[in-house]
Amino acid sequence: MSYVKGFFRFLWRALQAGQTVLFGGIALGLALVLIIGLMTSDKPDIPDGGALVLNPTGFLVEQKSAIDPQQFIQTGAGPNETLVQDLIDALSIAKADQRIKLVVLNLENFNGGLMPHLELIAGAISDFREDGKKVIAASFNYYGQSDLFLAAHADEILLNPEFGAMPEGFGAYRTYYRTILDNFDVSVNLFRVGKYKSAAEPYIRDSMSEEDKTARLEYLNSWWTTYTTMIEEARGLPAGIIDELMSDLLTTMKSAQGNFAEMALDAGLVDKLLTNRETQEYLISLTGEDEEVPGTYRGIGFNQYLQSERKPKPDQEDKVAVITVVGSIIDGFAKAGTIGSRSVSALIDKARQDDGVKAIVLRVDSGGGSKTASEVIRRELLHAQDAGIPVVASMGSVAASGGYWISATADRIFAHPNTITGSIGIFGFIPTLEKTLGRYGIFSDGVGTTALAGSVSLERGITPAMAKVIQYNIDTGYQQFIETVASGRDLSIEQVDAVAQGRVWTGSKALEIGLVDEIGGLEDAISSAAELAELETYSVWHVEPEISNQEMLLRELTAEISSAVPKAQTGLLEELLRNIRKDLNLYTSLNDPMHSYVICESCPNPSQR
To answer: Which of 112, 124, 357, 402 to pair with 604, CA 20 to 30 A apart?
Structure first.
């Protein structure tokens, strides 16, 4: 039997090695092709009278995540993301470019985005159309929920007759583990303050609490209202028609004889049903035929267009520094896509020590993380403020819990109407296995010089005395949180506590209750920062960590691969495994030295990973 096991072990390792060699060879080949292309290519040819192709891949993000080289070599892939600002810049530049006749919105490889980001792109599309230039949505397959929202702001929506275009609504569901943890006798030691603080609920319940449902519906309903209203207004549809269609979907389908495309056409959600070939012919009639690729229309992808046309703005002596922080907040150093307390502090210090920096804008897209790390970042911002540099916080799709903590004492806070913010609460979470091990006859015992020695142990659990200490630390952490907010927002402790308790709010509601100062985007925050610094002329400096040549190459490679691989439907099993993996990744990344966390688990993930 040992020989059989040895054979299969050898076979498995051989397969793994073969996979690494195969994908490593592919990656190396692509890298060489890309390097040669970068060294030999001139500026991309922008077809006069052609189309700007807005073809985002993956999820909309504020900052691209770092790429793990080992993962790339093994899988040939990395984070699939598109920067929100890239799409906005491309549309803004193309609006004044007389060579660009129209925009083709190709959403085949687009995986969506959170509502505030979708609204920004939709606004940029509408702005592009102001001078009479057209936007045509011409994906060659189905329109998902995010796709349809962006497409609705085009002049025309073309749909393949074999596909559909129908939203399903916003939902928030979680996987719960209490019963399986009980079956394995895992002890879940949870310490929290805030009745809406639901981050660890999956480990103590088998269903969503009413408080968590209330918190989630607060922003989901707001998002859905915005979503349906903006589509109906953009398409000239009667108010409430989308809800009406979805309330009796079966009748709607029967009237279209079960054809989803016809149903979308009848509902006014699309304009024309065209096959892929007919779509190409229609676009060729508008832009002309591409000489290099016969049978296709003339156009240029937005990434190529930006490489050619994005011009650096002239430097001014005075600067507004913009620091973008995205992802979970952890203690120490972290790569892009995660907020490391020391990494971000170094960027803030870099801006503070630059004599030309007169104001700082912190762009936040985070549901929080380590309480200690959040406070380290906030104090570094205070240090800049003490040096006479005004700080303005600009919230992206999510700036809650730790994301709100680091923003709370800024001189001004800007949020989008549908930003998810608040979640002022705190918890501690420590799973232990003393009962599990005991079931199998494994025990731990010993001595220590103090009552604290060995008081928190995976195999022994947490002593009652230490549990009281941890809970007290959580209680005082919550008090520190609400005092910080009260001081930063000029509110009383009682006012903050009334809107805290871990409750999440939309940006519009947060403005009403005093948690933010203004509704607006990043540009508004930058203008406000310049105003606070009394600047009339200034340049904007995006303070970013240095990216290695390796990282730059990997980003180029993943962008090429992502644009070449068609979007695929996520299977039900794959979705379940992804959710479980997400939960495991979250809790294995918790590294607060005091086991104190300010995480908004009720909030959507800004990067959707």
So the answer is: 124
- Pick the catalytic residue: 343, 401, 407, 423? 401
DSSP string, 45-86: P--TTEEEEE---EEEESSPPP--HHHHHHHS----EEEHHH
Q: Quick one: pLDDT at residue 567?
A: 55
Distance CA 359, CA 526 (A): 9
Beta-ladder partners of 357: 319
Residue-number span of the structural domain to which 356 is assigned:
319-429+478-599
Same domain, residue pair 257 and 339: no
pLDDT tens-digit series, residues 396-411: 999 999 999 999 999 9
Q: Are residues 345 and 291 in the same domain?
A: no
- End-of-domain residue from the set 275, 309, 343: 309
200 φ, ψ (degrees, to nearest 5): -100, 10
Same domain (yes/no): 490, 403: yes
Q: Which of 64, 101, 197, 567 is catalytic?
A: 197
Our answer to whether residue 328 is catalytic in this structure is no
Whether 64 is catalytic = no
Contacts with 526 (C-beta within 8 Å, 6 or more apart), sequence order: 320, 322, 361, 392, 394, 540
576 located within any domain: yes
Instruction: Collect all residues with Cβ–Cβ distance below 8 Å to 545 and sequence separation of at least 6.
Output: 335, 336, 343, 346, 347
